[in-house]
């Protein structure tokens, strides 16, 4: 018997920590030297990878504002995902981190990793990168 619904589980999320100020969002800890107001570091989610029990993946992307560089420009700097450069640019460096779900069952995790290896292999063969 089939069902119309799938249970999705969070496999991983890609996050970036940014600094919020009264002047806007800045690259983490890269606020202007002449700024004297309050600040707060928060995590921003760029995308979440969901997986079902068969290992099928769904990726949900989020549109986030580009954080300002220390000189208050909105020019995006180089972006590194888990230490690997994925975007180049003249602004301050931005560091994205993949955080995997530690509570995922071994079977679902293994099924997802099989699909991720296949997708990564296909993307790399075609000159792309899987985020």
Brief synopsis:
With 131 residues, the protein is an alpha+beta fold. It contains one helix and seven strands; from the N terminus they run βββββββα. It has one domain (9-125).
Question: Would you mind describing this structure in some detail?
Answer:
This protein has 131 residues and is α+β, with helices and mostly antiparallel strands. It has one domain. Strands 1, 2, 3, 4, 5, 6 and 7 form a 7-stranded mixed sheet that branches. Strand 3 and strand 4 form a beta hairpin.
Biggest β-sheet description: 7 strands, mixed
The helical percent reads: 10-25%
Strand content: 35-45%
Number of helices: 1
Count of folded domains: 1
Helix and strand pattern? EEEEEEEH
Regions with little confidence, pLDDT below 50 for 5+ residues: none
Silhouette: elongated
Secondary structure topology:
Layout: E1 9-21, E2 24-27, E3 39-51, E4 57-61, E5 79-81, E6 84-87, E7 94-100, H1 106-125
Parallel strand pairs: 5-7
Antiparallel strand pairs: 1-2, 1-3, 1-7, 3-4, 5-6
Record keyword descriptors for this entry:
131 residues; 7 strands; 15% helix; alpha+beta; 7-stranded mixed β-sheet; elongated
